[in-house]
């Protein structure tokens, strides 16, 4: 089976919209703004087949209406009344296909309640919306920190060579917090060096690989004793302690993850 290419459309402040294309056919994931998408499609003489949406935030859905008007193609996404223009609702366990490539739909709450992600087990491609970023993860905008923990754990269980297409270029800032937690992590130091070079040339640090994230992303590493020691020291901080009370945390793993997520919110 011939394969598709994936092209990032950098847009808005720091978003990546993902365009999958094969021959002249194209699929857009999370087009938060129609203009750069239409430009990209025209420039490459691509025909839009469908639009897939991960979650309701404006920077992921802002292009739906204009794209639908211009191309009249189906829009797939979660059943959430905060998103208008979806005509095919997706839920956990669904399978969606494009150009004979099959993707699993995985419900990954934690950033938002209805967030879904798209997993292609054949190509080992993951389009994860705002769940995971390189060296970081999404904020808990609604629901429970424990939900986000379990969503990230699901990602962590995928094959290590999984290519991860995140929706934002946040890597450089995330690495500051990651290195604060693990100053002696050699893989992190290398990643910072690589990211600095890429960003100096205005190049993307995304996609990333699961193997790299397992070695450098603190949100996949909150089980490590050295990290937990630092989290213990921060857990009493009044902002963190107050916010922790609002979460339902049933296990030690969920607790430490929540402390880390809350700490990152106030880390400068
Ligand atoms: Zn979001």
Could you characterize what this model shows?
By secondary structure, this protein is an alpha/beta fold. It has helices at residues 34-43, 58-61, 64-71, 145-156, 171-181, 186-200, 210-216, 225-234, 238-245, 252-266; strands at residues 5-11, 15-22, 25-29, 47-52, 75-78, 88-90, 95-98, 101-107, 116-120, 125-127, 132-133, 136-137, 163-165, 208-209. The N and C termini lie far apart (47 Å). The mean pLDDT is 97. Residues 55, 57, 111, 130 line the site of zinc ion.
Summarize the helices and strands and which ones pair or pack.
Elements: E1 5-11, E2 15-22, E3 25-29, H1 34-43, E4 47-52, H2 58-61, H3 64-71, E5 75-78, E6 88-90, E7 95-98, E8 101-107, E9 116-120, E10 125-127, E11 132-133, E12 136-137, H4 145-156, E13 163-165, H5 171-181, H6 186-200, E14 208-209, H7 210-216, H8 225-234, H9 238-245, H10 252-266
Parallel strand pairs: 3-4, 4-5, 5-6, 10-13
Antiparallel strand pairs: 1-2, 2-3, 7-8, 8-9, 9-10, 11-12, 13-14
Helix pairs in contact: 4-10, 5-6, 8-10, 9-10
